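[09:14] KT: can someone run the structure on this one? pasting the chain below
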Amino acid sequence: MNFEQGGGLEAFAILFLKNRGAVVEKDENGFEVLLPEELSGFLDTPEHLKIDKTSSPSDTKNGYSISFGSPLLEKMVDMACTQAPIVVCELSFDYLKSQGFDRLVREHINFPGTVGNVESAAKVKTSYLLINCRYLAQSDEQKEGLIELLFNYETGAFVSNKKTNLAGIARNYTDTFTLTWDRERMKSIVTGIEVESKVILEDEIEPFRESMTRRFRRDVANLDEYYGALKDEMEKSLQRPGLSEEIINDRRTKIALLPDEFNRKKDDLFKKYSINIKIQPCAAMFIRTPAVSLLYSVAAGRKKMSLSLTYNPLTHSIDPLVCQGCGRSISTIYWCDKSRLLCFECRQNRPLC
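[09:31] RB: done, structure tokens below
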């Protein structure tokens, strides 16, 4: 997905249209476009249209314009910005780990109450999906930032939230590799983003959360002091001579209402300092890389099982597996009588057995 720098609006429009399946033919006055039905529906145009080079932002008599401010360009920009850009990257390594996998598995994967060993190791090509997500934490103030999530695309397992450093790794960015999106796998990754981002953001926004909590407690203390002083003042006013019974009853009624008013104000403060978090994927990198596939044999008494593990050269560790009960990524692994891989909770609840 490359075009010459400085190509301007015309280069953007052509790239936008071609990447979405349109056929574009340039001429000296602009270009003609044949759009797929779905794209023409999004842009609210005919399937065949003429785009002219013009300085006018309005649609021309014979076709459409892509000058600044034109309706067609605005729709293209809006559509481009609603979808996270995806880059395809192929990695290569001068050296790939070939031994010491038994120790590495013991360090990163735990099979309680079992013994295991690596039976074989083979170099393979595998895929990862590196997703950058923008988050916005809103309260009385707001905090925003980026987090990075790495998933094993073959298994859907969440691998890491540490920044992936590709410096020093031979890599090739390409637009010739055809991406094949698996619906179920992507559903697993989307679920992983929702689950893992909550855990990651707990640490990420902790200083912001502490700041809002301090301000909430400060304002509640001030509110408590204010209503306490108001109650004392109103009670003292009842001791003044010459007050009628009606005035006294009216003030006592107002004093009785102070706790409810205080609680309403406190609830308002709680809403004010509560934190609402929004997270949205904003960019992705599909990574093809050499890796090592391990055939790992594990035994507990007479029960034996062989499973496939992946050595990840990006993290220099063994990728987690996926619980076949709840779909979460796990590094402490149990299995049931039907040899399903489970997390501790699913092993206790046995949702599949």
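[09:33] KT: thanks! The radius of gyration is 31 Å.
[09:34] RB: yep, looked fine to me
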